[in-house]
Amino acid sequence: MAEPRKRPGREILEALLIAALFLRFANTFVLQTFYIPSESMEQTLLVGDHLFVNRFIYGPTMGALDAAVFPHRDLHRGDIVIFRSPEEPTLDVVKRCVGLPGDRIEVRSKHLYINGKRVEDSEYAVHQDPRTFPNIPQLGSVHSRRDNFGPYVVPEGRYFCMGDNRDFSYDSRYWGSLPRELVKGRAFMIYWSYGGETPDGSWHGYGKKVSHIWKTLIGFPLKTRWGRTFQVIR
Q: Can you give the pLDDT at residue 113?
């Protein structure tokens, strides 16, 4: 006896459900998308860059099977990582890992030192403010820790992260080292870069959302930075 034929509407619904489950799986365990809302990683990453994030590179997310199928490693100095904010766990943040567990971190007159050795980071680190502030409490935490910091030894199981835009980055100099369990993955490719209006990550209502989508559609051809498309992040 032949099986009853499925209705077209049901087939479409099932296909959409399977596609949604697949995308959810991929976004959770393999690739995640992320966009840059602030200037803290300029010039490496610009406001409006949309990234692919490698979710499995830093270890298994599903257990032993995942570890056997996908190659993984621990964080390296220089990795650009996506992580949950230690202060606001619902907020995802992107920074560069500069210090590993046990490293002795210092910033002297804007220059980064690890274990007493100056780091040559001019390929990616930028300083847009010519002023250099001393580390004195009277200046407040923002200015006193920015240009002169430490020495600070990174605890076990934690990492020290900084933005490439060193003078305008809220990072480990202010909120401390990053716990390993908050790391979500490594940024590895820009799939789209939009030079128009970019959301700040906060919810401002449906009206603002619809307005942003409309402006993006209209501005897509002219405001897309085509030269950054599929650029590998280093």
A: 98
How high is the pLDDT of residue 143? 85
148 has pLDDT over 80:
yes
Domain layout of the chain by residue ranges? 31-100+158-232
For residues 47-61, average pLDDT: 84
Give the CATH number of domain 31-100+158-232: 2.10.109.10
Q: For residue 14, what are its two tokens?
A: 């099932």
Confirm whether pTM is higher than 0.85.
Answer: no
Of 112, 96, 101, the C-alpha closest to 146 is: 112
Residue 95 a catalytic site member: yes
- For the segment 70-95, the average pLDDT, to the nearest whole number, is 90
Around 91, how many Cα atoms within 13 Å sit in the side-chain half-sphere?
A: 13
Q: 168: which DSSP letter?
A: G
Cα separation, 107 vs 213, in Å, equals 42
Please give the Cα distance from 170 to 106 (Å, whole number): 16
* Given 6, 38, 85, 95, the catalytic residue: 95
Longest Cα–Cα distance in the chain:
86
Q: Mean of the pLDDT values across residues 61-89?
A: 76
Answer whether residue 214 shows pLDDT above 70. Answer: yes
Contacts of 150 (CB under 8 A, 6+ apart): 104, 105, 106, 107
The residue annotated as part of the active site, out of 40, 169, 172, 177, is 40
